[in-house]
Amino acid sequence: MSNTRPIIQAEQLTKVFGNFTAVNRISFEVSPGEIFGFLGANGAGKTTAMRMLTGLLSPSAGKATVAGFDIYKQTEKIKRHIGYMSQKFSLYDDLSIRENFRFYGGIYGLSTSMIRKQTDDMLEKMGLTSEKNTLLKALPLGWKQKLAFAIAMIHRPEIIFLDEPTGGVDPVTRRQFWDLITETAYQGTTIFVTTHYMDEAEYCHRISMMVDGKIKALDSPKSLKKQFDAGSMDEVFLKLARG
């Protein structure tokens, strides 16, 4: 991480649905190349916050910039500079691995030659070159997860947004996926990840802990454990939740 200008900035960001405040005046910054974790129980407001930052949902109040672009006025420019992996991976089961890469590469506006190069490079890196013509529905969940991550990176974005990326996979696959995240961040890509698995906080440079739509704590895992006199992030979260 460097001391350059933050790649994500949010100030008093708020989202209200009717009488329910899903995200309540949150403020934070993310540095380039940082793994920034948004942790909290289901319903804490993590996904809503991410959807505002990715231009998929309009805020009710507050302001934010992503990759230097305003989330109100420049959502299309934001989308060109980010990758996004949803909870359900959003891949097409009836297409082959190669066809999924081709489809999403086209959406991102890449040339045919660039799609082919990126596909070959990523499949070789993951050891899946021999499976490129396999239909996605024939693959194990862990492979689908890694492919969804690779496809989110096909256009070489500055930031990758991962929404609960390890939900439903086994502990070994979760660990392998976090190794992939760590390697990607080391190469300079910023990672913004939501999760309700408290042990995954240990992989993040800094984490924001959300409770009922508010950021209740924000720091490195080591600092938070020290601050709350806790032996694990689960213990930190329990102390936060109790108020």
Automatic annotation (TrEMBL):
<protein>
    <submittedName>
        <fullName>ABC transporter ATP-binding protein</fullName>
    </submittedName>
</protein>
<dbReference type="GO" id="GO:0016887">
    <property type="term" value="F:ATP hydrolysis activity"/>
</dbReference>
<dbReference type="InterPro" id="IPR027417">
    <property type="entry name" value="P-loop_NTPase"/>
</dbReference>
<dbReference type="Pfam" id="PF00005">
    <property type="entry name" value="ABC_tran"/>
</dbReference>
<dbReference type="InterPro" id="IPR003439">
    <property type="entry name" value="ABC_transporter-like_ATP-bd"/>
</dbReference>
<feature type="domain" description="ABC transporter">
    <location>
        <begin position="8"/>
        <end position="237"/>
    </location>
</feature>
<dbReference type="InterPro" id="IPR003593">
    <property type="entry name" value="AAA+_ATPase"/>
</dbReference>
<dbReference type="GO" id="GO:0005524">
    <property type="term" value="F:ATP binding"/>
</dbReference>
<keyword id="KW-0067">ATP-binding</keyword>
<keyword id="KW-0547">Nucleotide-binding</keyword>
